[in-house]
Amino acid sequence: MTSSTFPLPRIVVVGTGGTIAGAAPTATQTTGYQAGALPVSQLLEAVPGLDTFARIESEPVASIDSKDMSTALWLALAQRIDALLARDDVDGVVVTHGTDTLEETAYFLHLLVKSPKPVVMTAAMRPATAISADGPLNLLQAVRVAGSPAAHGRGVLVVFAGRIHSAREVAKTSTFSIDAFASPETGPLGWIHDAQIEFERRGERLHTVATPFRLGVREADAARAASSASSPGEIQVAPYAIDGALPDVDIVTSYAGVTRIAVDALVASGANGIVVAGTGGGSIHHRLLAGLSDAADQGVAVVRASRVGAGHVLHNGAASDDRLGFVSAGSLSPFKARVLLMVALASGLRGVDELQGAFDTF
């Protein structure tokens, strides 16, 4: 068989900056570097033989340290990825990103991108100028996964240190290790070793084309959503486009001796939602709880998550959540719960039933 009979997949590599594109004064320096210093085209040059298994295009969307990621850039990135995947000649997209907020960006795209084609995110813990930089191999593996038919329909994936993770489940778990990402409660979806790609399972939650959240809704979609009968908590097609700034949603943490000062300040500033990183299974100090209860009474969406890093927060119904007007985050971290709450509010979901339905579904 010839390559003309079965052409190589076309993969677009989208750069956003991060450590993978970082540069330091010396090759022995892995801290104090400038993130996003190198263009994505230069990152590709450091991966030998890339053109032997994919036809590569590249384009920059940003050149930032991912600690400075913004919701405006999330929206722009999702729009650009949707446009690229709409091309018949594009088989997948790889996004290079910083590690600090990669899990948040990945989950946002997991909810918003409207294509079954693979979107694979990758990053690095060492700058591109460092001895044994991990970026080139991570990028190589990400491109290979993005070009694999087995990656279709799995939502947004994160490829890092030979493992393939779901965007919903992945988290950064180390400040320095080159094996810095894990899926704490579920484990990875699969792995890649040289040219061998193995998927061991699928994520069960709805994602990408199966979610009602979208950046732009056709009038026919809106009319169909308006005319559809729905039961409490059922998710329908979003009634309007997410075409502007996302709602203001912030995170507060429960800990020994915490006050309600932060909650009251957020409410006074006009916050649309608050996620609380509770102790244990989502428990909340009584002073913070009083502030959050008052916030919910004033129409602020309140979601209970946990600061633990694994496990889940159960919806306790009439015992507390329903009485206080709270939503439980389930197995989502506080940071991903914030992402889903912003997207849900921007899509017109309101009230405990509708919001809890979104957290139970996605």
TrEMBL record:
The active site is at T19, T19 (o-isoaspartyl threonine intermediate), T99. InterPro entries: AsnASE_II, Asp/glu_Ase-like_sf, Asparaginase/glutaminase-like, Asparaginase/glutaminase_AS1, Asparaginase/glutaminase_AS2, Asparaginase_C, L-asparaginase_C, L-asparaginase_N. Residues 10-202 form the L-asparaginase N-terminal domain. Substrate binds at S66, T99, D100. Keywords: Hydrolase. One of its GO terms (molecular function) is asparaginase activity. Residues 248-359 form the Asparaginase/glutaminase C-terminal domain. GO terms for biological process: asparagine metabolic process. Pfam families: Asparaginase (PF00710), Asparaginase_C (PF17763). It comes from the Bacteria. Gene3D superfamilies: 3.40.50.40, L-asparaginase, N-terminal domain. Belongs to the asparaginase 1 family. This is Asparaginase. The lineage of its organism: Bacteria, Pseudomonadati, Pseudomonadota, Betaproteobacteria, Burkholderiales.
